[in-house]
Design a protein that fits this description.
The protein is an alpha/beta fold. Helix content is about 35%, strand content about 15%. The chain has ten helices and eleven strands. The strands form two sheets. The protein has a nine-stranded parallel β-sheet with strand order 7-6-3-2-1-11-10-9-8. Helix 5 packs parallel to helix 7, helix 6 runs antiparallel to helix 7 and helix 9 packs parallel to helix 10. The protein starts with a helix and ends in an 18-residue tail after the last helix.
Length: about 375
């Protein structure tokens, strides 16, 4: 499973490519897209539903379509961003390209009635113990460096001011940084405090938080040494986090959805009073290489039903499924371990879980919806 590391390397490049694709096609208020009406059916839900903006193919047209599909089949769209160190360091100004991209994405989302979730990631997804692409000569630095820290803080403020996102993650899967480089993590916690304050003062309604990789937090990732849950890390952000947000991909740990423990997500209520958000979730719909899982489309559906049920029980504010559609660039090793996470296959055919998702999107959104009683687990 060392291929997971290489997947992270290439995925980082994919995220950057996808985040810039299509941004020049529509600038300012030139978009003519309109919101998609959706009749409410069923009981209300407290959570907003959405996907990441990663398209099925890496083209400008597909990236533009991700916004339309996000609005048609959800309420929120996740945009993932690396830190633009050179642009936002002390005294720096965002480039013309960055400003155009911001205007395009912001105005397009507004026209479609989409809320935005922006995840600002300072770390290298291939090795979260180090910063991603720092300026030349600063490769060995950490966020204790004033120049790098100021860039993170300035970009967090820029995003808050110019996007006014509903959700803003400052730091992605930060427990991975703790596992790889505790000293780097400690400096991040300090920088995060400043970035959180800058973002909240600029956009008080934006929910700001870091995200945690849940399976790694629990110590159940099969290719890493097991360890007790790192719940103590939550305390590092307790006074400067609006949500406890997790990324979760349990099909890498549990061969079938039925083996995921009944209290897998609900146990979080014993550790924090913060609302629990699913910042990125996914479950394979086909068996994986090297015995990673033995999943099926039916098991993916089971997991999604379970996920949404737990979101109701927790009155979660956010549920993001990582990929709406299986991506063509995830077909060959090492990408293939993620190739079946989408709810729609590469040919555009809905999988079993798609009907479950569509049913959930039709439920009216109401943030005041109270937690539900847990649904009894079916007999095993």
């Amino acid at each position: 499973l060392r291929s997971i590391r290489w997947f992270a390397v290439i995925l980082a490049a994919v995220l950057i490519a996808a985040s810039t694709a299509g941004c020049g096609a529509r600038e300012g208020g030139s978009t003519v897209a309109t919101p998609t009406p959706r009749a409410g059916e069923g009981e209300p839900r407290a959570y907003r539903l959405g996907f990441s903006a990663l398209p099925a193919v890496l083209t400008d047209a597909a990236q533009a379509e991700a916004f339309e599909l996000g609005a048609k089949h959800g309420d929120v769209l996740l945009l993932q961003r690396p830190v633009a160190w050179s642009e936002f360091a002390a005294g720096g100004t965002p480039s013309t390209k960055t400003r155009k991209q911001t205007a395009s994405e912001r105005d397009r989302a507004q026209a479609l009635g989409l809320r935005l979730f922006i995840a600002l990631d300072p770390f290298d997804p291939a090795d979260r113990g180090r910063l991603a692409a720092p300026p030349a000569g600063m490769e060995a630095k950490d966020l204790g460096d004033p120049t790098l820290r100021s860039a993170l803080v300035a970009q967090a403020k820029y995003v808050a001011v110019n996007y006014r996102p509903a959700f803003l993650a400052i730091g992605v899967e930060v427990n991975g940084t703790y596992e790889r480089n505790p000293a780097q993590y400690a400096k991040f916690v300090e920088a995060y405090q400043e970035a959180y304050a800058a973002a909240k003062s600029s956009s008080p309604s934006t929910l700001v938080f870091p995200t945690f990789e849940y399976e790694q937090l629990l110590g159940v990732v099969p290719w890493e040494a097991p360890h007790p849950p790192r719940w103590e890390l939550l305390r590092d952000f307790a006074d400067r986090s609006d949500l406890f947000a997790i990324a979760t991909y349990p099909s890498f740990t549990y061969s079938v959805a039925r083996k995921v423990p009944p209290d897998y997500y609900r146990q979080v209520r014993e550790q924090t009073k913060l609302p629990v958000a699913f910042a990125s979730a996914g479950y394979a719909s086909a068996a994986g290489r090297d015995g990673v899982n033995s999943s099926t489309a039916d098991e993916q559906r089971r997991y999604l039903q379970r996920l949404l049920g737990d979101a109701d029980t927790l009155a979660s504010p956010l549920v993001v499924w990582f990929l709406r559609q299986d991506a063509n660039y995830l077909a060959a090793p090492p990408f293939d371990l993620f190739q079946s996470i989408g709810l729609v296959d590469r040919e555009g055919k809905p999988k079993e879980a798609w009907a479950t998702w569509e049913q959930a999107t039709k439920r009216p959104y109401d943030a005041s919806t109270p937690p539900r009683e847990p649904t009894p687990e079916p007999a095993r």
